[in-house]
Amino acid sequence: MTDEQQPAPEIRRPSMADALIPLVALTTLIAGSLALFGLDALDGPIQVGLLVCCAIAALIGLRNGHSWSAVQAAGQGALTSITSAIFILLAVGALIGTWNLSGTIPTLVYYGMHVLSPAVFYVATAVICGVVALSIGSSWTTAATVGVGLIGIAAVLGVSPAITAGAVISGAYLGDKTSPLSETTILTSQMVGVDLYTHIRSQIWTSVPAFLLAAVGFTVAGFVGPAPTHDAAYQDIELTKLGDIFWITPLNLLPLVLLAFLSIRKAPASLALLGSAIFAGIQATILQRDVVNGFIHEIGGHANPIVGSIQAVWKTMANGFQMNSGIADIDRLLSRGGMDSMLLTIWLIIAAVTFGALLEQLGLIDRLITPMIERARTRGRLYLTVFGFGFGLNVVAGDQYIALVLPSRMFRAEFAARGMAPQNLSRLAADSATVTSPLVPWNSCGAFMGAVLGVPTLSYAVFAFFNWLSPLLSVLYGFTGFKIVPTQRAADTEGAV
Fold first, then answer.
1. How many Å apart are CA 150 and CA 164, to the nearest integer?
2. What span, in angstroms and rounded, lies between the C-alpha atoms of 102 and 295?
């Protein structure tokens, strides 16, 4: 009998121990990396731990009869699913670099400091990001553009960057989960099988109260939180320095306007971001000639001004912009960006998503979820189970799409069997998966937010008030029955009784 005629090996259903071993390994390795390296664990140690967990999951799959080609296919599928995210990250790195070179971010900071006072800064940040995200439908784009500018303002004002990042993310995810332009909102409604606007209306009942409570928290933080580390005199020095380095003009905001226009027109995010980055670089060579000449000298560029300018923009997109102004806060604000600044984050996302894909494709997640459904005998317990499953997938799978799709798919029949309309599940899935994704450092969203905002995920997570309150309210509604919509059949039955 030839190899081709050999029967395929029998694939065994994984045991509970099989399902738990990779999770125990993940918990141990991540805890160990954080204990040994602190916040620097995201600079490589956690990535190594995740790849070791991938190997453990692969070995379990092989032991249960899966072929190596099947294991490879699962990993390849994971990489395919994040191609778009990788290009977005690289484009954001280029964008931050050229937006600094062109004066776009310095101009946002300059004008923002004249409008926003420390007392109302946090709540204003949340509102601004909420409006922008609702308009364009993207939390990532909001954080990478307006959010970066607001973090810069926070640095110059001397207020907490962690609380500011929490406010940025709170506003960004309010808009992301309630905007009809958001891909996650559209995906959730499609996976559950509910009309998009029915889904959005359902989400309002958790999103709006959660954001109002978050706004109260940010207002309180502005008045009783850590005092600004910079006084008015120091802020004036920083403003003067920004004005000395850059030509501050509303024209510097044209790259932001272009990005907003492209986003509203639903251009692919990576192309919109890269287009804005290139436009900012070209604009810099015209409006910020002194800055560009200084950077050409810094990198040892060509003496010809045209060739040197091309080198400066190219170098900025690749490796970021550098500034040596003599003022530490100004230098930290401006010396950022470049595609290479995103490579650690991309490494983290690849490792996390591959691990999650292996758990799913090898049947390990399904082995865990079945007993959970069987034990969730009341509506409140079912809601708590869905939340735990969604948030847990954000932790172990490292990707919000996995955390969103799987609960929507696996609990759909159970919600219908219990007489609950599909918009109940779509709201709960969004609250469990979408808004909790930026709270996990190795999740694609958490890694992205930490990299873009320059604030470690573990530092801002506690201050992302909306991202905690929204799922809390969703689970609470499950226990109380508030705004739980029955299916038409269930409603008719109740009416008959």
1. 8
2. 12
Residue 173 three-state SS: helix
Is residue 450 within 8 Å of residue 168, measured between CB atoms?
no
Output the six-digit token pair for 69.
């080609």
Q: Could you state, in order of their start, the residue ranges of all structural domains in the chain?
A: 13-488
CA–CA distance, 326 with 218 (Å, rounded to integer): 33
User: For residue 486, what are the β-bridge partners?
Assistant: 420
For residue 420, list its beta bridge partners.
486
User: Residue 271 and residue 46: Cα distance in Å, rounded?
Assistant: 30
Residues in the chain: 497
From residue 92, give the alpha-carbon distance in Å to each of 270, 274, 276, 326, 486.
8, 7, 10, 27, 43
Query: What one-character DSSP code corresponds to residue 433?
Result: I
Give the contacts of 120 (CB within 8 A, at least 6 positions apart): 219, 222
Query: Is 0.90 surpassed by the pTM of this model?
Result: no
Q: How many CB atoms lie within 10 A of CB 269?
A: 24
Q: How far apart are CA 265 and CA 247, in angstroms?
A: 30
pLDDT digits (tens, 9 = 90+) for 10-69: 888 889 899 899 989 988 888 888 888 886 777 888 889 889 999 999 999 999 989 999
Please answer whether residues 318 and 339 qualify as being in contact, where contact means their C-beta atoms are separated by less than 8 angstroms: yes
